[in-house]
Amino acid sequence: MSTTRTEQPGEAVAPDLQAIHEAHERIRGQIHRTPIFTSETLDQIAGASLFFKCENLQKTGSFKFRGATNAVFALSDEEARRGVLTVSSGNHAGAISLAARRRGIPAWIVMPRNAPRAKRQAVESYGGRVTECEYDMASRDAVCKEVQEKTGAVLIHPYNDAHVIAGQGTAAIELLEDVPDLDIVVAPVSGGGLLSGTAIAAKSLSPSIRVVGAEPKNADDAYRSLGSGKIEPAAKSHTIADGLRAVLCPLTFSILRKYADEIALVSEEEIVSTMRLLWERLKLIVEPSGAVSAAIILQRKITTRGKRIGIILSGGNLDLDQIPFANSGK
Amino acid sequence: MSTTRTEQPGEAVAPDLQAIHEAHERIRGQIHRTPIFTSETLDQIAGASLFFKCENLQKTGSFKFRGATNAVFALSDEEARRGVLTVSSGNHAGAISLAARRRGIPAWIVMPRNAPRAKRQAVESYGGRVTECEYDMASRDAVCKEVQEKTGAVLIHPYNDAHVIAGQGTAAIELLEDVPDLDIVVAPVSGGGLLSGTAIAAKSLSPSIRVVGAEPKNADDAYRSLGSGKIEPAAKSHTIADGLRAVLCPLTFSILRKYADEIALVSEEEIVSTMRLLWERLKLIVEPSGAVSAAIILQRKITTRGKRIGIILSGGNLDLDQIPFANSGK
Fold first, then answer.
1. Which residues of chain A lie closer than 8 angstroms to B279, CB-CB?
2. Which of A148, A210, B186, B227 is the 20 to 30 Å CA partner of B299?
């Protein structure tokens, strides 16, 4: 996406706490203030007090609607008139589509052919206009450029955008308003937009809070990047957490180096069994990517005993035909 | 169960609104005040405004915890000391087990061998002591009598009990506190405890409200009973809604004749597709029995256009290995 970076309406600079508060004011009337769920059984498993911020219950089924709404509604009228454009395999695409419809402007979505069916259907149901591309970056960039030249639409990057990051940070603002005395907050990391917004908000409001990113072992680029000090390429392995395949950009990398304490990893089996546990105990549909943050805690990847832990369940969109534990006979 | 009726602590008389309010006071500190979910998409499908009372998010995963808690906590200390006993294939059993544990007394549960695995595991996790019986009524009554003679425990019937019915009615009290101007309220009907409590509460608070019972076509005894004017035997067909196989007792039959406006029926296919729709759109795990009330509305079994409709989603417990639409390739 670097070829189109100069077209971004949100600057590629880190938002501060003030920008996140402004984002919250801007989007408050458009989003759900999502509830926080608790479970005695899950607390027993973790040996800790867990507070699940249910972004799977956000409009469009994921936190992405926060950042998308902030970016779309921050556009000037002149910018907005041209419509918006994005490249996404899933939740950001649905979020941009609905945010654009709410503003009364068109949304063009460039989406890989192999995107989950449920996510594509969601985009179309929100009025997004899908153009397919191949999975490789060259095809995405080419198709994106083509659509942009034809339409003049404003590109809204899924995470390399200050307005998007500020919008994602509003979930942590709400979480800390509802549960002020958290010791740890956990969010999944892919391109890093949610974790960046979460980390800026949490560390600014409560410097002693520990900010942990959650990543599949099979998509461990953020873990490796923060270890090596430079942005590492994507892992080649497959992960069921289809929302967590993106890699950090320079903006999110620099934010996470400054504000995130740790990235922890979980296996595919741990993601699936955690997802099942959340379904059984919280009675909530959480997608694999959304279960990764809970897996870090419930599978004891970090020290949790006695702590008060906020966990962002990032999304709830998945093909219900493809439930990994159904009919397994387990 | 008629053989053991004289042992019941709750009289087999209809509770009134006052009794339901007293139940609410008694159990308020023990239960969740469950949230009400809404969905623009489901409103569009129904052509109505839908308010889902999420009893799948109740403690133990079903509304049954309301009635069980009321019955267990209404016992005198002397009665309570003997422990409690019930016969149930599922949610009532889990509910009694946890309510008894909260009061610090033992719970003996007589349960058919073929009860869903998830429900049996739940009973055991709440400290209930399971004794298996066969599915037929003779075996149930014999095993129940045997356990009762051995332990002296107080039988708490799943629905032929004024305290249980009053407890179930507290869900409708909360629903109407949160959404006072409902035109219709829908609850599933099996033995009739939930629908009886709902109907007494709703008609007492708002006489113009329409109270609709929801039943599977394959377990249509309440529909037939209210049509013929006498309690009809259970249907012989199988239904996926495993919580809705019981038949009315004289108490619930007389309450429903007086207060319920209608029983509407749905097919097995309609139950499954509605359950899927609820999972996709509300991001909530709802069990088949819990989806039956929503199916009446979303499959347009009654006239709904423009109405404000409260729908009780009664439970969220099911074996996640046995999801009826998973891997179907649909």
1. 285, 320
2. B227
